[in-house]
Fold this protein.
Amino acid sequence: MTNIQYPRSGLRVRCEQGVNSKVKQACLNFAKWLRLYMEFPIRVVVYLKPAKQIKTIDSKELVSATFFGPFERNVEPYIRVATGDFEDLVSEIGEENAICSILNTMAHELIHYQQWLIDPNFDEEKAEVEAENESRKLIDEYYGVSFIIEIIVHQKVWTIENEKGFPTTISDGEKSMPFWSSELRTQEFIKSVDFYKKYHILEISFIDFVNRWLPSLEKDELIVGTNLKGKYLIGIDWNPKELLEQIKNEIDFY
């Protein structure tokens, strides 16, 4: 792809008239997070459509979303996502799960975009399997589910400290303390952010985190920042009480 010149980069979302306002805002919020989480060296636009299904360009098959990766010089890729079944999904699985389903569809096509960046002639059958798995992981990261599952599996939680104590950051006007669901994630964070390179890792038992740390954080009015990464400290913020409830729900599920 080095012989093709693309003048613009980034991710954009375009919402057509008739798309549910909650879907629109959820997709915009997701895109905002994605811009910090992923790289978009070639501009890609996500078009949110009010229809229940859209036709593919080649086969005219009705689908829920499509990705178009061009070969022509100066032609940018784009994604179309059908959102017209939102109300039906709400009736079937609830509003939160309905929004999650649409975001997962958007994530799926963005994985195809990444595959196209690597190889415009990617194998569609193999790419579909990879996109299914990777989009699910991406949504889990966005919602913070991976943090909860991993700390249950590992029975451990990690944070960082120095001689002055534990760090806090400001997130949406509230103080937040960082925690990670693996030692490797914690190490990668320290290495990637200069300010924290002199901090060292503290391992906490899962039982201690649930029984002591979360109640203490709630008492101190601190938010739990989970799996922060990069210089922009991107991660998922939890209210300690809500996080504890989600942990209990996951334990009951398993």
Remarks:
- Helices lie at 21-37, 86-93, 95-118, 124-143, 145-154, 183-192, 206-219, 240-253.
